[in-house]
Design a protein that fits this description.
Blueprint lengths: L25 H21 L5 E3 L11 E3 L2 H6 L4 H26 L5 H13 L3 H11 L1 H18 L6 H24 L2 H33 L1 H61 L2
Antiparallel strand pairs: 1-2
Length: 286
């Protein structure tokens, strides 16, 4: 029996894109550490004995200090929701820094549009090695995807088993695989910003409601002018929760939108890279 050769579609194909191994321990360590840090700030900074005229020296976990000396000290009297809100704000700051560093690294070292035009120029001159060198210089997600596609591009030039359409499909597949490895890294941890943007406002309202309940209970128990003053004071303290919640939510929403806009720009560059490779190969190696 005559020996049969493998079909064109069964040709060996190796992927240049390799999975990124990265730990995401920050996703569970940071929120917990920030909540603990929020309590420390609330209890030992805002709630320091020296900040009150009538400190509760034996208060333990939640001292009932009275007579705050400064405006920030009044925030302590907002209740136990305040340290949680401070923790949420610290979490937003931590993930904003982490996402900024990651996305800045993913954006590469140069302008993405200029980089794509450079690759187009080298491919038009059939100089794949210079295009690969440009990817090494650019780095970032677009550079990584383009480099993976160019390696497959170079492999397909010398391939004699496949027709042009199959070669283009192999290049496109390589680009898609490389893209699937890059995008999760760009979007990782953004869920914390979007979640806090919603939850912080609700926590602020919860703290305000608890403070109002406490204030009106005191009004009902005491009565008279002193009770009215205590009510006004209690409402003021309760509103610190709302202010913290809205402020934290606003920062989270703004940074989330900024990061998603930058990610959209990088994603557009990746899409343009894949289009450039497939169109260039189809035009130059018919």
């Amino acid at each position: 029996m005559a020996e049969t050769k493998p079909t064109a579609g069964a040709a060996k194909s190796s992927t240049a894109a390799q999975p990124k191994r990265s730990s995401n321990a920050i996703s569970w360590i940071a929120p917990l550490a920030c909540i603990i840090g929020g309590y420390i700030i609330w209890r030992f900074v805002l709630g320091a004995d020296s900040n009150f005229t009538q400190p509760d020296l034996n208060g333990g976990f939640w001292p009932q200090h009275k007579g705050p000396k400064a405006g920030l000290s009044k925030m302590y009297e907002g209740g136990i929701i305040v340290p949680i809100l401070i923790g949420c704000f610290l979490t937003v700051v931590i993930f904003c820094i982490e996402r900024f560093l990651t996305i800045s690294r993913a954006a590469g070292t140069g302008n993405v549009g200029e980089f794509v035009r450079t690759i187009q120029f080298h491919l038009a001159n059939k100089d794949v090695d210079k295009a690969l060198a440009a990817c090494d210089k650019q780095k970032g997600s677009v550079g990584n995807v383009m480099k993976a596609g160019l390696k497959k591009y170079k492999e397909m030039i010398t391939n004699t088993e496949l027709v042009t359409e199959q070669k283009v499909m192999n290049i496109q597949k390589e680009v898609e695989e490389a893209t699937s490895l890059e995008l999760p890294m760009l979007e990782k941890n953004l869920v914390f910003l979007s979640t806090i943007a919603s939850v912080a406002t609700l926590l602020g309202l919860l703290g305000t409601v608890l403070g109002m309940i406490k204030s009106f209970s005191a009004l009902g128990d005491e009565g008279g002018g002193d009770a009215a003053r205590e009510l006004s004071k209690g409402i003021s303290e309760a509103l610190f929760n709302t202010a913290l919640g809205i402020g934290t939510s606003a920062v989270a929403i703004i940074m989330y939108n900024l990061f998603t806009t930058r990610i959209d720009g990088i994603t557009y560059g990746i899409d343009e890279s894949g289009f450039t490779l497939t169109q260039s190969f189809a035009a130059n190696y018919k």
